[in-house]
Amino acid sequence: MADRFDPPQVLDRLAAELLVVRCSGHLADPQRRYPRWELDNAALQRLLQRGVGGVILLGGCAAELRQRTRQLEAWAGAPLLLCADVEEGVGQRFEGASWLVPPLALARIHAEDPALAIDLARRYGACTGREARQLGLNWVLAPVCDVNNNPANPVINVRAWGEDPATAGALAAAFCRGVQAEGVLACAKHFPGHGDTASDSHLELPLIPHGRERLEAVELPPFREAIATGVAAVMTAHLLLPAIDADHPATLSRAVLTGLLRQQLGFEGLIVTDALVMEAIAGRYGPSEAAVLALEAGADLVLMPEDADGAIEAIVAAVASGRLSLEQLRASQQRRRRALERCSADGGDSAPAPLGALSNGPAPPDQALALELVRRSLVSRGRGPVPGGPGVNLIRLDNSLACPFLPAGAPALALPAAAGWRTCLIDGQGPSPWSGDGEAPLVLERLGDGPVLLQLFVRGNPFRGRADGADPWPAVIRQLQAAGRLAGLAVYGSPYAWETLAALLDPRVPAAWSPGQMALAQGELLGRLGFGPQGGATPDDDAPRAALAVDFTD
Amino acid sequence: MADRFDPPQVLDRLAAELLVVRCSGHLADPQRRYPRWELDNAALQRLLQRGVGGVILLGGCAAELRQRTRQLEAWAGAPLLLCADVEEGVGQRFEGASWLVPPLALARIHAEDPALAIDLARRYGACTGREARQLGLNWVLAPVCDVNNNPANPVINVRAWGEDPATAGALAAAFCRGVQAEGVLACAKHFPGHGDTASDSHLELPLIPHGRERLEAVELPPFREAIATGVAAVMTAHLLLPAIDADHPATLSRAVLTGLLRQQLGFEGLIVTDALVMEAIAGRYGPSEAAVLALEAGADLVLMPEDADGAIEAIVAAVASGRLSLEQLRASQQRRRRALERCSADGGDSAPAPLGALSNGPAPPDQALALELVRRSLVSRGRGPVPGGPGVNLIRLDNSLACPFLPAGAPALALPAAAGWRTCLIDGQGPSPWSGDGEAPLVLERLGDGPVLLQLFVRGNPFRGRADGADPWPAVIRQLQAAGRLAGLAVYGSPYAWETLAALLDPRVPAAWSPGQMALAQGELLGRLGFGPQGGATPDDDAPRAALAVDFTD
Question: Name one Pfam family in it (chains A, B) (predicted).
Fold first, then answer.
């Protein structure tokens, strides 16, 4: 039953308060990269005035984000949950802040020195929480609590804090403490555990065949640890777990959210869905029905409903028809408001940051942390510097047009260029380099002459050549070695790719791996392979002139 | 002679005031794209405190630039000249502001309707001046007054306001009036005229063989018009004009700067050099000597000296040795100060803009101007929509890693993708698509099957295939037509490229040209070729899913 006074508007606002909509971190509409998913400013302003209670932001630099969060608060006129997927430091998503190595790097450190890794994870969280707050965010959608026990996992992989439950739990909990000590909320995800899937819930609904016993042994412990340490929120997974609920994915399952998470694990904080627009949900349920089902199942907040207005109306109708109780929605509202109060009550400097926050980049201790993490997680092998050269700097990446780690001047480009190496990018969007021959997949004459420095930016499951769909890189390593042309190997990202490829290397080939892909990791890694620091170019090299010509057209 | 009181410091500050140094528009040091050319914040702050009087900025978005200019003013503690190469709207360099079609587009309009073109040029200037001021800039390094009478010019080309002196002069002067009515300084460049060169002064020193009579007929009129309309500054060219000065390039020539510009053309405003780091100067003179030579020749301000401290010291020493007179430096100082006063005295709203300027992008009239310019300058031919398909969306661009006009979701990518076309990028940094056969330059099987939509982003003189150095695109057009695979042609940028290629087309092939390369131009042009508006993707296409996967990794 609705309130006695003005019930339609009150209920409408209550429903709206439980939604988290998405917008770009860029200020202006034309700057949006994904207008299909990112509300325009008119719609955003209208929804915030309708009472929508949270916004997830993506895109833009730190300075822009700081203005953006202030703008959103002004439009809402009430405290908002402002969140972002900043799992690897705020700089992962917003240029100008700290970009840290992915969490799995710390799991590797944990194997050697658990106390050090736990302290690093806490500092990692503190850095992320502090910078988030400085830019106006109050909710970090991390840590990933999934145990990455399946190296083929296309969507979790290096985002996890461990490959075993104890490591993942200890580090994720330390990260939570770091974030929340800064007065920012953390979010353990993706409940009840997304680590053991080989399919991608962005595209389809993965199935987890495990029973309760196995969940208790592997998937649940990190969530238990995060909850024990006081994590403010838990995000649900778009997974089917037939042993618990044969009919509904976890996000929409009362057995999972209310039964398992709320009652059995005793979690009293905010339960938020993963993005409802994702194909595993959006493809199966109506855009508004999914929001109602999630709340029915026990979620407090609905992330990225496909149609926010439709979701509000469906929730209102579900209350009217008795599918949802007003008491339940009010309880969710109370959890949301308690979480917001916690942001200002918890430690840290709770005063709003000035617009000039981070205006000279990360603070020195955070810069030091970023460098320490890169150095401690870097692995190299082989003897001395890359021999021969100049030759071909062959770089594999996902998409050269949207590649935040390879701006002009990035070390992976600039250091080899300064030594005379020619860049050749392979990203599946250029002319094919593939022969169709699985044993000699590259057509070498399409790349140019000379030794090859192979730099692979790989995370998740990107091990597919365009020609045949199979992983071409082990064969490429063998092919280049057989031709006497492999001068060096750099792998940025996946430890599994590194381990597979390093095992194939001639021991004389210098090679290194960094879990990080950002400029800092590139510079450190290439330093190990004998490429000088930036600026060490010889006076007659072409690279700076080319940069100047691109850059300075007057 | 120096002052009686504390002469060394006074002279040091006077010398410093005449320099314009370069920094990134990004706030934080690690965000710099060209650290070799862009001062770090510590050096910048120190130089501003030493008295450096101007800064040229490049890079960063509008929101970041607004903070950056405020930061620089705070460091300097005195009024600064803050400038940028925003020749084609502030959005050309700083995302979030207006990005307009290049000036040569208006020259084409001028041929049909001079009054309309002149009014558009004035509005173009007003838009640029207003947005510059809103972001804290007070000096627009435009208009280009060079007459682009040489289609092979690699460096001016579409940046010019005309291919004949009358058009260039009328439009450049109208642009100046628009900029300066907003309380922002304009800058006519590159004196005495850079239009008739086929070499690039970024790389070498071009030679202009013309005598005075020809200069009066072609090169000088646009500068005379800009001066007559009150342009605040003139920038020098790095060109050798043996008929005037056989020994020194214009930038360092007393005959050109003092004789021709100051005395004969009667220009009383600021004379600023082009960037002294450019190879035509940097490669020939010592880094500090060039600054002294420029001032000796009659320049008031020195742009981007290779070593600002060295330049200050060299200027101080030149005064001590009598090479430079203190009176001359003081006259330059006065011109600089008068220009700064003019910024606040001239029309427009002279109050400093708030940090949230442009926070919802360009104002509606400026958006309308940008669209009007795109529509009026768009040329299309052939019949109806692109037939066949889906096939290969073959895109030629300079550098996929630094391509501001092709972010994720750019129409040139998204519209064909939504209709099922596969993107294939050719930028000289991927595996070679070239056969080495001049008559059939592309190896078609490296691109994939089906009809080809050819989209060329070309400006200046980029008509070089990697394989042979000759212009491959006319042969590519013939090759694709012979194979029955040319479905459509889009040219963004150079009218010369368009005219050359359009002449080769089968009249049935739909084709279009826009002088602009930005998203707005892409959408309008592809609309003419039958590709629907963004968001018109069929529900089962792959593009939005792929975008989601890239974008939304949780």
Answer: Bac_GH3_C
A372 CA to chain B: closest CA distance, Å?
A: 17
Q: Across the interface, do B431 and A447 touch by the CB < 8 Å criterion?
A: yes
Q: Burial, B503: exposed, middle or buried (Cβ in 10 Å; 0-12, 13-18, 19+)?
A: exposed
Q: Please check whether residues B263 and B397 belong to one and the same domain.
A: no
Structural domains in chain A (count): 2
Residues B422 and B520 in one domain: yes
Q: Tell me chain A's radius of gyration from C-alpha atoms.
A: 24
Check A235 against B447: CB less than 8 A apart: no
DSSP symbols for A407-475: -TT-HHHHHHHHTTPEEEEESSSSS--B-S-TTS-B-GGGT-SS-EEEEEEE-SS----TTTSS--HHH
**Closest residue of chain A to B40, computed from CA coordinates:** A360
**Which residues share a beta bridge with A341?**
none
Determine the angle formed by the axes of helices A364-377 and A114-134, rounding to 10 degrees: 140
Please say if B110 is a catalytic residue. Answer: no
Residues B172-194: b if buried by 16+ CB within 10 A, e if exposed = bbbbbbbbbbbbbbbbbbbbbbb
Residue B424, CB half-sphere, CA atoms under 13 Å: how many? 27
The CATH number for A436's domain is 3.40.50.10870
Helices (H) and strands (E) in chain A — how many of each?
A: 19, 14
Same domain, A534 and A451: yes
Q: For B541, what's the count of Cα atoms within 13 Å in the CB-facing half-sphere?
A: 17
Last residue of a domain, one of A304, A327, A345: A345
Residue with token string 């400026």: B366
Range of the domain at B174: 7-345
Q: Do A325 and A400 belong to one domain?
A: no
Query: How many Å apart are CA A208 and CA A215, to the nearest integer?
Result: 10
Residue A218 vs residues A152, A160, A172: alpha-carbon distances, Å = 17, 13, 14
- Whether residue B57 contacts residue B69, with contact meaning beta carbons closer than 8 Å, is answered with yes
Q: Which of A401, A464, A476, A518 to mutate to test the interface with B (most CBs of B within 10 A)?
A: A401
Query: Nearest-CA distance from B217 to chain A in Å?
Result: 24
Structural contact between residues B185 and B232, judged by C-beta atoms closer than 8 angstroms:
yes
Find all residues with CB under 8 Å of B5, minimum gap 6, and list them. none
**Does residue B83 sit within a domain?**
yes
Asked whether the beta carbons of B53 and B337 are under 8 A apart, the reply is no
pLDDT for B461 beyond 60: no
Nearest C-alpha of chain B: how many angstroms from A269?
Answer: 20
B-chain residue closest to A359, CA distance: B27
Interface contacts (A, B; CB < 8 Å): 253
Residues B328 and B453 in one domain: no
CB B488 within 8 A of CB B523: no
Per residue in A461-492, pLDDT (tens digit) is 543 444 344 579 999 999 999 999 999 999 99
Best CA proximity match to A495, nearest among A130, A212, A180, A106: A106
| Integer Cα distance of B148 and B126 in angstroms | 23
A29 is catalytic: no
* H-state helical runs in A349-428: 364-377, 411-418
ipTM over 0.90: no
- Residues of chain A neighbouring B63 (CB-CB closer than 8 A): 27, 60-61, 63-64, 67
Write down which residue in B323, B345, B367 finishes a domain: B345
Q: What is the pTM of this model?
A: 0.91
Q: Is residue B2 part of a domain?
A: no
Q: What is the pLDDT of residues B96-119, one digit of tens each?
A: 999 999 999 999 999 999 999 999
Instruction: Report if residue A353 sits inside a domain.
Output: no
For residue B39, the chain A residues in CB contact (below 8 A) are: none
pLDDT value of residue A543: 35
Q: Mark whether B325 and B411 lie in a shared domain.
A: no
Cis amide leading into A165 (omega within 30): no
pLDDT at B511: 97
Residue A304 belongs to a domain? yes
